[in-house]
From TrEMBL:
InterPro entries: Caleosin-related (IPR007736), EF-hand-dom_pair (IPR011992)
Name this protein carries in UniProt: Caleosin
Species: Zea mays (Maize)
Residue numbers spanned by region Disordered: 33-55
Membership in a protein family: Belongs to the caleosin family.
GO molecular function, one term: monooxygenase activity
Amino acid sequence: MTLYLQLVSTSLHAGSPRLALLHLRRSCEFNPRVSMSSYSPPPPPPRDQSMDTEAPNAPITRERRLNPDLQEQLPKPYLARALEAVDPSHPQGTKGRDPRGMSVLQQHAAFFDRNGDGVIYPWETFQGLRAIGCGLTVSFAFSILINLFLSYPTQPGWLPSPLLSIRIDNIHKGKHGSDSETYDTEGRFDPSKFDAVFSKYGRTHPNALTKDELSSMLQGNRNTYDFLGWLAAAGEWLLLYSLAKDKDGLLQRETVRGLFDGSLFERLEDDNNKKKSS
């Protein structure tokens, strides 16, 4: 533009106003060839990585995937539910079941409170295990181990129970480590943690676990040096697998969900009663 002004000034000094106007007109003309050739589109905005669930340098995050669409399948999946074990197929929990004001973990334990007084004694644990189909030896061994493990943490004070009783109102204090974390520390049900059991480990079937996948989950959930938690988790899940796997050797998602709120125990007891009566 400075060059054109100099030409105009020179032309005016030379006494040629028409020439000056010609130069000025050409300087204002739009040259599409020059303009288009010099145009470059703006760079694309950087990709938002804040929602990524896989890290390129952490292959384990690609191997154990999360469900990125869970919020579209279930309202507020990050919100732990106190009363109901919910998932996309059961957004209201187990249909027709009264939680009786208990947390999901309390509902799970209450099945073994055979007289409904809020306290579980070893013989009640034994009766509950027999009711769901466990043999005599397994029922006896597990009733001792379960009450031995859970009795003291659930007591209201410092004194232990001489009868190894478990208090249902304090059952959340007996939560062990190296688990799926589907129960939170207060006994609520966390839908996102429950869904992760199958999104991470259900590789053969999206809504079921094979025995090998169950073993992989137990190993993946282990906390360092938490040997007691390792044993407790293995005992619980392997017992569940032996009792509730289907004819194809799969542990179905609905079966596992029923474990958490105790509705599975009621179904197993009903099935066993029908077998005895037939």
